[in-house]
Amino acid sequence: GDRMWHFAVSVFLVELYGNSLLLTAVYGLVVAGSVLLLGALIGDWVDKNSRLKVAQTSLIVQNSSVILCGIILMIIFLFKTQLLTLYHGWLLTLCYILVITIANIANLASTATAITIQRDWIVVVAGEDRSKLADMNATIRRIDQLTNILAPMAVGQIMTFGSPMIGCGFISGWNLMSMCVEYLLLWKVYQKTPTLARKSAKVEASELKQLNAKKESDTKPAEGVQLIIEKDVTGFEPQEEKEVGCAARIAEPFITFRDGWVAYYNQPVFLAGMGLAFLYMTVLGFDCITTGYAYTQGLSGSVLSLLMGASAVTGIMGTVAFTWLRRKCGLIRTGLISGVAQLACLILCVVSVFMPGSPMDLTVSPFADISARLFENEPLPTIASPEPEMIFATGMPNMLNGSIDPANSDPEMSPEPVPLISVSLLFAGVIAARVGLWSFDLTVTQLLQENVIESERGIINGVQNSMNYLLDLLHFIMVILAPNPEAFGLLVLISVSFVAMGHIMYFRFAQKSLGKQLFVCHTPDPKAAADSSPPGNTSTV
């Protein structure tokens, strides 16, 4: 249901606003800004409440918001002409604002669900078995990849052979049904895992020791746990004083925001998390930007759908590679190998920039298009109605120059066919790099799971989500500033540079954690790792 909604909401917004991407752009910016600002607060809320309450509340809020949004969209589709005439169209504008606001609430609730289930529950269910934790992470990612393929296909077919209104009704009904099923499944998991009911400082100490294979005599982790205990005590004692001071209540979210980012910076896996975030600063993914560029190069929607399917297959291969590499070389080395594999595949993307068919032209200013729009009052291009199979929703607009759409060109003045060597190499590199990308993503995910203590899992992962959204937002701003196809090759080079910087950060983390043993690839022995682990080193070998 969540994947269906993420795919469909942007399509619905395009349909509502006369095939313009304005509402989709606003929605994407609101979503990214909200998670960036509220990620730490959401994580702090996850930490301060019981696991079952957090999971149930976020699940109900998420699905209820989607259901309500679907109902409002159905009403808008039914009575759009009447709403346009009421109050000079302001009522329709209010409906648009309401839809984007509720959809944003659904996304925030989805973020809370992902943090509590994928970053907390799964760690407790796996216990001290790291191999089980790795297998569970990989399985969840495979399911995620499959739903990324199946959900858009299902919604796309319904909207193609039915209508957007039928699609809204189907998604609302599906989320209502899935909410009940998910609620029951969460309750069963909670009942079968008694440790999920305990969320205290004592559990934090024992769990930290189990996950990192530490001894009872280690001093630094004990100090960290002692700090958390003191923090909890001071957090619960002065409840009455907090209720008296209104200024303290107002300042509390800002203090939580600051403390969350400071705690994230002080984590031993900070560089690994930053490395993952830097991978979001890229146009080398199957989002609307790369899709739009592919259209300018002559690829059809059917070809792109096949390429998306191939990328999902290589993503699943990445999850398989992760579990195999982790068993053979250890967790930290798996991230290093995955990074090298990803960068090696992205060399094809760099080569594609200089191959025949590449529109890259350094004589054209990357900012020529945006400056023409702003300073010469040139009208914005209109977007032709996309075919159903050509829609790939990501919550952000296609920033490429719409004037090069082959559908709008005059058949008598059609340009010569563009050589496909450049775009073929580009997508070959993007698809092949998914193996290393998803293996690296799973590596950093498990490092965060194993090295962040229980009382801070929520807020640390919330800040990690904020970092991811920040870099993702920066990459869209980069495209807004240089939207013409002639500048896309430059964006590719910048993207590969940021990916390289992310893996350099991870290499530095790996070097600090393993030292001279970094390049000694061997099958890790948990017992040996526990005996040889130096005091205060919470990294996983």
From TrEMBL:
Q: Which GO terms describe its cellular component?
A: basolateral plasma membrane
**Which Pfam family is an annotated match for this chain, by its short name?**
FPN1
Q: Does the keyword Cell membrane apply?
A: yes
Q: Does the keyword Transport apply?
A: yes
InterPro entries, alphabetically?
Ferroportin-1, MFS_trans_sf
What keywords were assigned to this record? Cell membrane, Ion transport, Iron, Membrane, Metal-binding, Transmembrane, Transmembrane helix, Transport
Q: Which family does it belong to?
A: Belongs to the ferroportin (FP) (TC 2.A.100) family. SLC40A subfamily.
What does this chain do?
May be involved in iron transport and iron homeostasis.
Query: What is the protein's given name?
Result: Solute carrier family 40 member
> Species name for this entry?
Erithacus rubecula
The organism's lineage is: Eukaryota, Metazoa, Chordata, Craniata, Vertebrata
Q: State which gene encodes it.
A: Slc40a1
